[in-house]
Each structure stands twice: as structure tokens, then as C-alpha cells.
Amino acid sequence: MSLKIDLVTKRFGSFTAVNQLSLDIPDKQIFGFLGANGAGKTTTFRMILGLIDATEGAITWEGEPINYDKTDKIGYLPEERGLYPKQTVKEQIIYLGRLRGMAKKEILEQLNQWLERFRIPDYLDKKVEELSKGNQQKIQFISAVIHNPRLLILDEPFSGLDPVNVELLKNAVLKLKEAGTTIVFSSHQMDTVEELCEYLCIMQHGKPIVHGSLKEIKRSFGKKNLFIHADFDLSYLADLQGVVSQKVTPVGCKLQIEDEEVSQRILESLQGKGFIRKFELEEPSLNDIFIEKVGESYE
Ligand SMILES: Nc1ncnc2c1ncn2[C@@H]1O[C@H](COP(=O)(O)OP(=O)(O)OP(=O)(O)O)[C@@H](O)[C@H]1O
């Protein structure tokens, strides 16, 4: 683990934004930060980058705090996007690439590849203010990765993008991971986090309420989802022991159950009642886990 967050607290006056956070972020993996608005994700990113100081605790990357002499190894997509509207894409990225010590030729080669990949190959000489919001976001992403950083921090990179652009960006993130970049990002899109991350942390009021590997988090949550479609009334299932909740839809129902044994009992109870079109047991989704854990901590 080269990125270590050790008992970090951040206070703004008397308000505690991050509260004794400890995390080991694995190398060359994608790590997701989830949490309701105001949970402390952006504050944590700013502390990792050394943009603001922790009130208590320490954050180190490869054994040292991050500071400006590591700029060429780190990429950051900040929550408050900031491009110069009057500059062209080319001028903007050349300027930012030069700040990271790259040669102009190399910047242009990389930039052209990224524009191809993001399906905007003719945008080199367009002014930023002429671009749609989604395309500006892609340019901002390019500015964070143009120097091929080893550590990449992305604050809500998928917000405001249409599904096609979300897919393009997801593929870009996966490619960077394959190339050995450690990626830390925040998102409110559970399905995206589920697709990309092996490791994650759910924050609430500045504290990690769940963290670890996605597989392990799902396993230890225990509960499972059971989807049943049948040609008869399934409402009686809500009263069976081990059924936590039931949602009825026009084509059947989704049950949250305590464990696999409950699904066996349900299957037995369905015998002889009529035609069963679907009976599917699934792992809990990250959305289920988030809602329960964040809900609990609200209580
Ligand atoms: N400079 C500051 N001064 C005072 N309070 C701050 C400051 N920066 C952040 N906060 C507060 O700290 C809390 C955590 O904010 P932060 O931006 O880290 O949350 P977040 O998890 O990134 O939220 P979101 O999902 O809405 O972006 C919020 O209540 C916010 O108002």
C-alpha cells in the first residue's frame, strides 16, 4: 500500500469534516469513495494532495506527504472544474503539460490520441467556451492525465455526462489502471463504482462506515436479493421468516432475504402454486448496501 491515510481529522473551525479516517489505498487499483453530499470526500482528496492540511493525523504516498515537487507524477480532476474559456483545447493542454515538464511534441501526440479515444478528433483548435459541458469535462480529464500520472485523483468524474460519455470515460479509467496507475475517485453512481472498483470506502459525516474490497463488503453484508416472477400472487412472501423486505413490481417481486437458506424455503413454498417464470438469487447491490448503511448511520 503506498497511499496511507492514518487517523486523519479535518476541522473547519468547530465543524469536523473528516473524522479519524484511516485507509490503506492499494497500488495500481481503482479505489472508490462513496458518500452522501457533504460526507467529506472532496476534503479528503484535498488533504491527500496536500492542498489543505489535516488538523490531525498524516497522509503519505510512497512514504512521504504529497507536495508540489510530485506534480509530474500526480493527476487531479477537481470538483470545481477550471479551464480557461478563451483558450483553445491545444493551447490549454500544452500549457498544462509544460507545467508538468513535458515536451510540446509529446503533449501533442498524447493529446491527439486522447481526442481520438474520446471521439472528438477535430477539437484541437476549438475554444473551450465553444464546447458542450460534457466535452469540456473530457478536456478537463485529458488535462489530468496528459502526463500519464502514477496516482490519479478524480472528484466525481462521471457527473453530468451522458451514458455514451460515461462509457468512454470508464474505459479510459480501466485502461489507465491496466497501465499501472493508482486511481482514486468519488461518485454518486453506484453502478459505475460497482463496475470499476475492487476497493471502496463509504463515508458518512467524515467517517468511513464501510471500507474494504467490494467482494468482501458484499459477502459480509450477508443479505441477498431474490427476484421472482410468477403467474400467481406473491404478496404472502413478505410475512415469511427471513424475508427482510419485499418490493412488488408489475412482473413479479424483489425480495431482500437474510441468507441462501431462506431462498430454499421460499422455493419450497412456491411448489404447486402455479407457473414460476423466474427465480434468481443475486448478491446485494452496492446501492442496497449504501442505502442500509448510510440510512442506519442517519438514525
Ligand atoms: N473550506 C471549508 N470551510 C468550511 N467548511 C468546509 C470547507 N470545505 C468543506 N467544508 C464542509 O465540510 C463538509 C465536507 O465537505 P466535502 O466537500 O468534503 O464533502 P463531499 O463528500 O465531497 O460532498 P459532495 O458529494 O457534495 O461533493 C461539508 O459540510 C462542507 O460544507
From TrEMBL:
InterPro entries: AAA+_ATPase, ABC_transporter-like_ATP-bd, ABC_transporter-like_CS, ABC_transporter_ATP-binding, DrrA1/2-like_C, P-loop_NTPase
Ranges that cross the membrane: none
Keyword Endoplasmic reticulum applies: no
Keywords of the record: ATP-binding, Nucleotide-binding, Transport
Residue ranges of domain ABC transporter in the record: 3-230
Top-level taxon of origin: Bacteria
Name of this protein: ABC-2 type transport system ATP-binding protein
Coiled coil: none
